[in-house]
């Protein structure tokens, strides 16, 4: 769908006497990233919420003597970026190193965080980095008792306590969706451990700032390590297997099934690290037997070797996927070596996901790779072109929605964030130029000028 200017004649009529905007942005290209790809010139914000959108004239009635006015001068505004798979505490503890780039090749080994102050500083560092990138929401994918004895100190229950202490304070500059973890990060988990801890009450926080809607399960490994569970054998033998439970494939599958069923019964979202086609198949089958996701938005993380037939069934069951385009770029050669060129050529079928109308989010998995969403979108565009898709304005809108509106939907929060619409939170990302003029392949050239969270400027590149 092409972007068009849509006037809002009634915008000014909604202003109340004496209720001027705290903040206004005008004279730009405001990409709402709603289903109609609406574009406005200006926005007015009051008390952290968008109160008007439209032309500069439409919002004029909202401007008072104390209104802060940002002159966009043709710059673009997007909804705040939502990275749906980002290990913020781990990233903050390691920054600026990543696993694949920037000299950070070591894995998740060695103690990084030993006390509450170090945990707090890691989170604050991560929030600072995210603010500089226009990221206003993210999913912290796996914090909990399974990592209480973990060697890095980045994923255990004490991290959750630090998040709870910071939630809703002035220090918080990004909204957090946190998934609980009952096993080891990138390692084994079992039904008994989940059952023992899943009903332990977690102290409540304002879900607009810290939401804990579900659980993460590491079901298998990754194809380059030959521990993703495949239908067909790897070259040289072996199928990989599940990381859940112990024993043979049937026993491990029984544990995995019980874990998904328990979380579903508790009305929790289930996010499963699943890269092999056999693992993905079994997760889909479990959800199908449960009658579908039932509004819980269960999803596959990574989904490297998902098949076209599985995609159709996932959509029917109300399931989604969280992809990482930069990881696909960085590991494509390893994938081919592990599973063979023919199987590798079918990996990460983003073009099929788009064609089938799947609920797909793009994400970084930082600090595995860079948290820079601009690079992820450029990678996704390159992959789509290699898959025969022409990346024009319509596809660019879809890619941007995969970093804004669709992750908000995955969070169960699309009614209050994820697009630029009256009544939603004023989480905004101001770019130095219009991305529709730049093109997705050149996204890395775009600068983030301003990041606004809840109507508050948390990053200003030009300050």
Verbal overview:
- One of its GO terms (molecular function) is hydrolase activity, acting on carbon-nitrogen (but not peptide) bonds.
- Keywords: Hydrolase.
- This is Amidohydrolase family protein.
- InterPro entries: Amidohydro_3, Metal-dep_hydrolase_composite, Metal_Hydrolase.
- This protein folds into two domains: 4-79 and 425-460, Urease, subunit C, domain 1, CATH 2.30.40; 81-410, TIM Barrel (Alpha-Beta Barrel).
- The chain is globular and about 70 Å long.
- An eight-stranded parallel β-sheet has the order 9-10-11-12-13-14-15-16. The protein has a seven-stranded mixed β-sheet with strand order 1-4-3-8-17-18-19, with helices on one face. Strands 6-5-2-7 form a four-stranded mixed β-sheet.
- 54% of the residues are buried.
- It contains 15 helices and 19 strands.
- It has helices spanning 56-59, 88-94, 116-132, 157-166, 191-197, 249-265, 277-289, 308-317, 325-339, 341-345, 350-355, 373-386, 393-401, 405-410, 435-438, and strands spanning 4-5, 23-26, 29-31, 38-40, 42-46, 49-54, 68-71, 76-79, 81-83, 135-143, 175-181, 210-218, 269-274, 299-302, 320-323, 359-362, 428-431, 448-453, 456-460.
- It is of the alpha/beta class and 463 residues long.
- Mean pLDDT is 94; it is low at 1-14.
- Helix content is 31%, strand content 20%.
